[in-house]
Amino acid sequence: MANLLASIITAVIVSVSVHLYLDRNPPGGAPAPDTEEPPTVRMAFAGIAPRQELRLQVQKGYVEVDELRVWQSIRSQQGNDAGQLAPDAPAALVGSELAGLDIASLTRGLRSPDGEREATFRVRFEVKDADANTLLLSWKMLDAQVVEHEQSPAWSKAVTGARKLRGETRIDRTGAPITARMDGLRVSDPVGQELQTLLRRWLAEPAPIFPVEPVGHGAVWEITRELTDGGVRSRQTQRVEATELRAQTGRIKLAEGVSGALLTADVHLGPAMAAFGPSVTSFSATGDATWEASTGAIMAPGDAGGTSSARLDLALGHATMGLRTTVETELFVTRIE
Asked: Over 80: is that where the pLDDT of 267 sits?
């Protein structure tokens, strides 16, 4: 579940800009899906001896129920260095219906309403098959509830729709993902797409990811992955420290720091917006988390928080209009059974 916070801070940022505009102004054709590369793990410090390999010990028939609680606060801010189209606007726009249009009006369709939103998701995991190296997990969403914050109907609809989710995930005994399948959720609106991406990534990596090498108290490892959301590709890094390791019980306390950086942005908002050169010009994300992991369980209870920010620019000659979105996120994972 090391990708949980990284997924949230990336998917939310992009969905309230690129996904939102595309939903209101479809360019034709199916949008590119949000994707992720398999994570890589690098040992930074093996920790103090004695050291041991960390491997999930659950076997076929094991069952647990966990609850994820997500809270988010979203703020958007608009800014520009010119209110009208610049004199050297692209020829394609001169004389068109967009000529002379206040650029600020174009970004209104990109904004997501500021405010808070919160929800809980309860999932049942069962180990359907297990061997020396891998685990096949069957999971089912038992419940999904909105926590009221005067949030949008779109958020309520997306959360309610998540109750139909079920699937299978195969991981190895270090927690690293192998394959995953999610059924039961078909959405087209931006909020639903964002939630689908979040839940798909979470349930594809439900367990902590441990290094292959033996570790001891104080061990530090880095988990790096590349995520693509709405054409925006970012690199997410989790730096994980084993602050406590109990060999006899298999319990490990993990402290995690998260950071994110923009790699590339291939943003397409359709023909009407092409001349404006839409681009994500900045993206940053930071966060931290603490988890109470166990080799005798799948998910690790704990909590995390993070802040992320991104800027989407529309440019015409000397005129530029930018929309900066900042998202604060808190999440809590609780073992129910």
From this structure: no
Q: Mean of the pLDDT values across residues 65-91?
A: 67
Q: Evaluate whether 311 touches 278 at the Cβ level (below 8 Å).
A: no
Q: Give the pLDDT score at 97.
A: 43
- Whether the predicted pLDDT of 260 surpasses 50: yes
Which pLDDT belongs to residue 32? 56
- What pairing do the DSSP bridges indicate for beta strands 134-147 and 177-183? unpaired
In terms of Cβ atoms closer than 10 Å to its own Cβ (0-12, 13-18, 19+), residue 49 is exposed
Q: What is the DSSP string of 74-125?
A: EEEEEEES-SS--TT--TTTTTSTTTT--HHHHHGGGPPPPEEEEEEEEEEE
Distance of CA 161 to the CA centre of its chain: 18
pLDDT for res 140: 97
Average pLDDT over every residue of 94-110:
47
Please provide the average confidence, as pLDDT, over all residues in the chain.
Answer: 79
Question: How does residue 40 score in pLDDT terms, banded at 50, 70 and 90?
Answer: very high
Q: How many helices (H) and strands (E) does the chain have?
A: 6, 15
The first and second tokens of residue 304, run together, are: 């995390």
62, HSE (Cβ side, Cα atoms, 13 Å): 16
- The 10 Å Cβ neighbour count of residue 23 is 18
Assigned token pair, 98: 């967009």
DSSP 163-196: GG-EEEEEEETTS-EEEEEEES----SHHHHHHH
Nearest CA to 3 among 317, 299, 319? 299
Classify 159 as helix, strand or coil.
Answer: helix
Rounded to 5 degrees, φ, ψ at 156 are -60, -40
Lookup: tokens for 104: 């600020």
DSSP 318: T
